[in-house]
Fold this protein.
Amino acid sequence: MSQSIAGGGEFDHSMEAAKRLETQYRRLGTRDPVCGWPGCEESNPFVLTGRHPDLLCYEHKLLSCARSPYEGHHVAGRHNSDVMADIPGNEHRILSEYQAAWPEDTLRNPNQSPLLAAAAAIRGWLDVLRIIIERSIAWIPEFLEWLHRELVERYGNDWWIKFGWGTPF
Amino acid sequence: MRLQPETLEVAVRGWTTNPSPPRSFRGIPLEDVGPSDWTLTFDTETETDHAQRLRYGGWQAHRGTRLMRHGLFYEPDSVTDEERDILKQEAGEQGLELHEVTDWIESVFFQLAVDLSAVVVGHNLFFDLTRIAIGHDTTRSRDPKMRGGFSLKLCENPTRPRVLVKKASASATFIQFTVPDGRSPEQRQQERDIDVLPYRGFFVDTAMLAGALMGGGKWSLGRLADTLETEHQKTTTDLDGPITADSVAYCLNDVTVTWECFQKLASRYSSYNLDVPLHRVISEASVGKAHLAQMRIRAWRQVQPDFPNWLIAVLMETYYGGRSECHIRRRPTKGFYVDFLSEYPSVYCLQDLWRYQLAADLRWDEVEPDEVNEFVASIEVDDLLQPELWRRLDCVVQVDPDGDRLLTRARYKPGSPLFNVGIAERHGDEAWWTLADVIAAKLESAHHKTPKVIRAIRFTPGQLQGGLRPIYIAGQADFRVDPYEDDFIQRLIELRNRAKRNRDQATDRSERDLWEAVQYGLKITANSDAYGIGIEINTTTHRKPVKALLHHTDGTSEPITTKHSEREGSWFNPVIATLTAAGGRLLLALLIRLVRDAGGDYVFCDTDSLSSPASHCRPSKTSSTTSMHLIPMTRPTCPGRSSNSKTSTTTPTPANPELSTPTQSPPRDTPSSRNSPTTFTGSPEKTTQKANSSPSAPNTV
């Protein structure tokens, strides 16, 4: 018998995801994976295939096999709904990884509970929104911060004044 | 009175190769991905009787530098109900997790150490791991370096790995996980035709790491924390009695101190900018090898794998360790002690052996024996005081001995299983020695008799390897080493001298201790790189005899079976190793000669030092000035015995000459290289050869 008096909650919550990520790193053979396809900078470990240094992202692996880079994704999970959306292969892999973090009952829904199916549908669309945000606009804040630093370095702390833009706020 | 020659069995070091070396993983050298940013630090408290059973322990889990979880664990059978209540109370008051040890192993240790690739940190980790184990066995690993160690069972879950531990030396331990039973993730990947290394875990023993980075063998936690000036310092408490709030606080503080020491050591190692990951550093030699690798130097066996085996056999035959000899026995004698500063690095630099380290290949040429005989005959003491001469010693020679005083490994005591090395007046079959040893034989013979060389082979380094890059030793900005321009070993010694100056100028004790640790670490690293790693031979003991190929110096070879197979270390280079060791012996022989020419004698000598009877000395112009003149980097200093790394020497210094007796590892059923009945005149002087600490097999006849 053991007794957990304090702590552990946050840790346990992220443990499974951290374990899966760790398994991916070991499978890829590096902690800094990146797709080897010219011009591709995909670095999500769940998307990459192969073994370092011969890594390809899933889409480029499909392309190299002359297959379509798009795949059908069960947005609410295959046990909850037949609704599928065609999405790029890389995003499909990430969404599947997100699904793996859902509660087991919601994902499998063994008794076809309509509430769990509804929960799955909402989770599925939240995941889609999340991936849209993460992979389409999440880069923008960091880019703006980098651009600001560059401009400060070249034109000083009030570079926008020198550009004749006035005070923006 | 002339003594009659005596026939003795003689052995020489042999060279064997394994006809079927273990395959690398599917032929592809794979690297593990390294640890994650998680760290698990733990410490155990045990009963104080001989069994030292686990009572309780403390632990902390960090992600980066952020403390994520911490707590206590205990062995239910070793604590009373009252003590458990104290543990619960302390855990509750301080917000700690409390686990029984079996539960802790599954829910904390394995989750972090295996599932999250955390670095497991402990001070004397070997001990702590054995305390939490529920069973043990001898290793059955296919990994040769783990043979002869322990396999620790930590839980009953068959899908969890065991922990393999093996002492590599007094201060270094190999620790790794086994591949657990069942279908491991690695196997699943292999079925999908993806190569994945079995997960071996990442373990760091702060005691061992401190020894590797700062020398001085193993460090106690208190001394280490004091030297590193960690925020928390080790406390003391009475651990004999029952568990109290004080003893729990003591345990938790030890965990914190261990973590802080780890942080400081990791930071120090990080400043070295070496590619070798921290968890692979187990000795000073590891640091030395890492510097070489950082310069992008490729090991000799990599760049010249086709070097003829007969020639390696010749080189191995010429290899002996440092000379350790008790000359005046069974008579209390006051001695005047001198030793060489950085002897091996000195002779390494004098012979310019750095060229051999950088060479893309080693070349060899036969030299006319008469030419060598004339050279040896012409050498006088003064010649050896000229540094230029030392660059002409890169030669091994075959001698037809005729009463010459040469190194001889023989069974001096009839019926003894031991082969000792002595300097004997040798007769009998010809054999190989280094040119330096032949010159030493001439220096020490009564009438300066020159041994008769009948064959000689001179080595020269080929073209330098391309693509080498400069490094900064220990991350010091002003200690840049360009391998093409500088001698790395010389730079190490220069850095050491600076560290010694800093030590002497230090105003407080901890700063002085720190610089002392730095200079000592640099000393050992220099010795390792100059000498130790070049002769690293790792022996594997097999359960059943295995086949091997024994190479003779005449170019023939024969298949043999042995239970102790040998494999060279990654930086094996017998030319560097034998020339460095022989250079050291020549330096010592020169000193003995100088002492004798001055009318003195010596009580004992040991590798790089000599004690002369005080009655023969005036303090101490003669020997001091001579040695200082001999080599700029050498001068008599206070004793400071070189410690050992994995590959350096280990035989203790004979503090009391009376107690000194020749020692040598007992021979095993390893390959014999030569069977030469040999005769001696008189009794050989009792000489102890320092044996290489990496278990190498003496060669029986």
